[in-house]
Design goal:
The protein is 65% helix and 0% strand. The chain is mainly α. The protein has a single domain, classed as Up-down Bundle (de novo design (two linked rop proteins)), CATH 1.20.1440.20. The longest helix is centred in the N-terminal third of the chain and has 37 residues. It is elongated. The N and C termini lie far apart (60 Å). The C terminus is likely disordered.
């Protein structure tokens, strides 16, 4: 092997090591890991949404004249399934904020439903649905935490030298937004039953502000 050939091989090896050290591989790898975990969040959100029609039907059958909270739950579910965030929108704080708000509203209305109908706890079908709903909520929290951990790992990578070189020069990387639970969804809601059975509450129709034009909304997992 000639000296020139040896120098070329050495140069290529050094260049490869330099690029690897600068995050040429680690930045996209961590980004894809965070986006894949976001898919798990969406699946968990959809699992909860799929339980709600059966829950509402069970309550309506037991208390047909009391529609206000049922209407709120149905409308909250509709909003929560319309407002979605695609992997490409994970660095958009407004999109993530709209999603978190819609999911928090759904959580609060489900809490109100459970507290408004304590007598339904004795019905096996209702009890089974509430257990499934609790499991779905726990799964959402688990996947949310895992996504936030993956997003934090990626965000740290693109801000840390030397990976920040590839993040800014090669990929133009932007930090991912975290999916934080709204404080309202974690507090015990105030339940006012004075108007149960009265006029149905009307909430403004929600549109999928986060979906790209011409794109079908992604299944919300949650």
């Amino acid at each position: 092997m000639s000296v020139i050939t040896s120098l070329r091989v050495a140069f290529v090896a050094v260049a490869a090591l330099t690029l690897a050290a600068c995050g040429i591989n680690s930045v996209p790898t961590k980004e894809e890991a965070a986006k894949a975990q976001w898919g798990n969040v969406q699946t968990a959100l959809q699992r909860r949404a799929d339980l709600i029609p059966n829950l509402v039907a069970t309550v309506r059958g037991a208390a047909a004249s009391e529609q206000q909270i049922l209407t709120e739950v149905t409308e909250a579910r509709a909003d929560a399934t319309r407002i979605t965030v695609s992997p490409d929108q994970l660095n958009d704080p407004e999109a993530m904020g709209r999603l978190a708000e819609a999911q928090s509203r759904l959580t609060v209305t489900l809490q109100r439903l459970q507290e408004a109908y304590p007598e339904l706890q004795s019905q096996p079908r209702f009890a089974d649905l509430m257990v499934a709903l609790e499991e779905a909520n726990n799964l959402i929290n688990t996947e949310r935490v895992r996504y936030n951990d993956a997003a934090r790992d990626y965000n740290t990578e693109i801000r840390t030298f030397p990976s920040t070189i590839a993040a800014n020069v090669v990929y133009g990387s932007e930090p991912l937004q975290y999916f934080e639970a709204d404080e309202a969804s974690q507090a015990n809601p105030e339940v006012n039953l004075d108007n149960i059975g009265g006029s149905q509450a009307t909430a403004p129709a929600a549109s999928n502000d986060n979906a790209e034009d011409g794109e079908e909304p992604a299944a919300a997992a949650n």
